[in-house]
Amino acid sequence: MPAYHPPRIAAGEITPESIFLNRRGFLAGAGAAGLLAFGSSVPAGAAALKASESPFSTDEKLTSEDDVTAYNNFYEFGLGKGDPKAKSGKFKPTPWTVKVDGMVSKPREFGLEELLAFPLEERIYRMRCVEAWSMVIPWAGFPLAALLDKVEPLGSAKYVAFETVVRPDEMPGQGGFFQSLAWPYVEGLRLDEARHPLTILALGLYGKTLPNQNGAPVRLVVPWKYGFKGIKSIVRITLTDKQPPTTWNIAAPNEYGFYANVNPAVDHPRWSQASETRIGEGGFFGANRRPTLPFNGYEEEVAKLYAGLDLKANF
Ligand code: MTE
After folding, report:
1. 109 Cβ partners below 8 Å, 6+ apart?
2. Which residue segments constitute the domains of the chain, with CATH numbers given?
3. Tell me: the pLDDT tens digits for 1-22?
4. Fewest CB within 10 angstroms: 8, 35, 96, 102, which?
5. pTM of this prediction?
6. Atom 6 in ligand 1: which residue has the minimum CA distance?
């Protein structure tokens, strides 16, 4: 990311947890009806999503829905944190299909309705952006492994590549003379990272379908990695035997690596990664900063994936 953006967010905007938990109780009852209401088509705009609770969720205080949906990185809509919300009104997340191909026995396309039919779980995860801010977000999604199982990866597949949609007519950051990044935005994981139970495809947050600015209708969430690995508005997933190119590594290879595991011991060349600001807690610098945790606090679950790998060299 080119700059170190201090948040333009007022402190004290946290939705009281009791309100959110009440709504979750309501959704547990109303959700089945909500899903039935989808029928074979997905309504435009936010719709309620039913998601069961998960042991992988943190009980840390949630970042407010206002902050989660107004302070975003989605360069297809512009570089400012407010651009994705302000400039994504023309973007149409339905209808939608995701093509899954490459080194698999059963390549195929998945319609959004099929993705919504996977058993959805609520995953409350910390998200740590490489810019040294963090949030706690209640996602609704399902393990990526469940999707991969359907297409049966070949034994030779070693990596999973992801691609965001290209629609300059609906995404103003993809049009015009100045292009911030090369499109499509692309990302990748090793196959074992992709199959890890913490890795999900998210279809919603705060009990509703994803807003455009958060990557509607489907995005990746890998909570132990910097947020830029969480590619939004995915249209293609390809199994391959080669390490896939990734957008930020292409843009600045000395600053952003393929692995991008959250690591307080490896500083960004232009700033420290030792600590972070939790959005909504006020003040980008000073007393409110909290230490950044190795693997963003998911070390116990994922450190074993990297045995023998030099994480300082493979940043
Ligand atoms: N995906 C696409 N297609 N384009 C982007 O610009 N930004 C990334 C990631 N996914 C980005 C993207 C970055 S830098 C971060 S920190 C997260 O999305 C932000 O997710 P959020 O806006 O939902 O918090």
Report:
1. 97, 98, 99, 100
2. 11-306 (3.90.420.10)
3. 544 233 333 333 333 333 333 3
4. 8
5. 0.88
6. 74
